[in-house]
Write a structure and sequence with these properties.
The protein is an alpha+beta fold. Helices cover 36% and strands 44% of the residues. A hairpin with a 4-residue loop joins strand 7 and strand 8. It is globular and about 55 Å long. The N and C termini lie far apart (130 Å).
Length: 253
């Protein structure tokens, strides 16, 4: 009986020690997991903080860029406004050459005074039209002109020096032997002008101009047809009118 009790006691002690060792291992494992989880949590917090910082930094940079662009636009607009307000009265005009308009070549121009006797005049024409009977009268030109006014700008007489360049694509017109052919080419040149500005009202004026200059014209001539054969290439110099016309002028200020 005593021996049985002794064996039972030993078995119980062994079981208790085994449970204690398992409990210690479980506690250590739990402690290890807690440490790992803590490290993971701290890392997540750090990453979240870093990500939040990056997002906030990006937002700040974008806001700063928007504010900078806004300030630049305000500055540019303010400078333009200051320049516009600093320009004296009656120094900017827009115009159209009525002679060109009558020839079905729409024209427009602007003239700006930059001193008490000098203005810069820039005229342009553009005609993209085709007409019935397969006729073409397409052309464009740009003509800057420096003018010297004998009195004050936009009043009385002036003399000028000008240059011009442009291109054309014309077909079935009664010159250059193009009654049944097409010609396409370019031109450039320059010359001298004289004119007179007549004031009609505080904003309106009428301008008459005469000019003459030397031009170089080069073009290719094509036979009739959709893909007409080129039968001639020509270039020549000629003395021609330049800047001639009657212009209707409107003073912006």
């Amino acid at each position: 009986m005593i021996e049985c009790f002794s064996v039972t006691l030993k078995v119980t002690e062994k079981m208790i020690s085994t449970v204690v060792r398992r409990t210690d291992w479980t506690d250590k494992e739990n402690n290890g997991m807690n440490v790992i989880n803590k490290n993971i949590y701290e890392k997540q917090q750090t990453d979240s903080t870093s990500l939040l910082f990056d997002v906030e930094s990006c937002k700040f940079v974008m806001l700063f860029q928007k504010e900078t662009m806004k300030r630049k636009k305000i500055l540019i607009f303010s400078l333009l406004l200051c320049v516009w307000n600093a320009v004296p009265a009656q120094v900017v005009a827009v115009k159209t050459n009525l002679l060109h308009d009558a020839l079905a070549v729409p024209s427009a121009g602007v003239e700006v005074a930059f001193s008490s006797h000098y203005t810069l005049n820039v005229m342009g024409t553009y005609c993209p039209f085709s007409y019935s009977g397969d006729r073409k009268w397409k052309n464009w030109s740009v003509r800057p002109e420096l003018r010297r006014w004998l009195c004050t700008p936009f009043c009385g007489a002036f003399v000028g020096v000008t240059a011009e360049c442009g291109g054309f694509n014309i077909k079935k017109v009664p010159f250059w032997g193009l009654s049944d052919r097409r010609a396409q080419g370019t031109f450039y040149g320059g010359g001298l002008t004289v004119g007179w500005h007549h004031i009609l009202s505080p904003h309106w004026g009428l301008e008459s101009t005469l000019g003459i200059g030397m031009y170089h014209v080069s073009y290719s001539r094509y036979l009739p047809g959709t893909c007409g054969y080129r039968d001639r290439v020509s270039s020549s110099n000629a003395i021609l009118p330049v800047g001639t016309g009657i212009s209707l002028v409107y003073m912006l200020r």
